[in-house]
Design a protein that fits this description.
This protein is α+β, with helices and mostly antiparallel strands and about 120 residues long. Helix content is about 35%, strand content about 40%. It has helices at about 1-15, 20-25, 30-35, 55-70, and strands spanning about 40-45, 50-55, 75-80, 85-95, 100-110, 115-125.
Length: about 120
């Protein structure tokens, strides 16, 4: 069953990756899948910190942020397409058991023949 879930997300990553898929992966702290969906030059910015570049560094940064936060629910705010063709974004909020929140911006762009996460911004609310 786990293999089927992994294959489903790989299929989504190749053909129909959406911001909502990524938001769910972030909530579930599914770092293996997130890592597979990051573009090689992905960027991450957490609060007012420095911008982190590169898939491995972004994955470590998002894992560090979410492992201490432990999200338990999602509140979708906004999604849409940017002016760049084949590029989508979602703005969502993650909350933990203490009702603390993180505002998450995820940008997904066409990279070769697949869609990848190109940028994630995280801000405490």
């Amino acid at each position: 069953m786990k293999l089927l879930i992994i294959l489903s997300f790989l299929f989504l990553g190749q053909f129909a990756l959406s911001g909502q898929d990524v938001a769910q992966l972030l909530k579930n702290q599914d770092f293996d899948q997130i890592g597979l969906l990051l573009s090689s030059d992905a960027r991450l910015k957490v609060d007012n910190g420095q911008r982190i570049k590169g898939a491995d560094a972004v994955l470590r940064g998002i894992e560090k942020t979410l492992s201490t936060f432990v999200p338990t629910r999602i509140e979708k705010n906004h999604k849409g397409s940017s002016e760049v063709e084949d590029s989508d974004y979602i703005i969502t909020k993650l909350y933990n058991d203490q009702n603390q929140g993180l505002r998450i911006f995820v940008h997904i762009a066409e990279q070769g023949s697949s869609r990848k996460i190109s940028e994630i911004k995280v801000r405490s609310i």
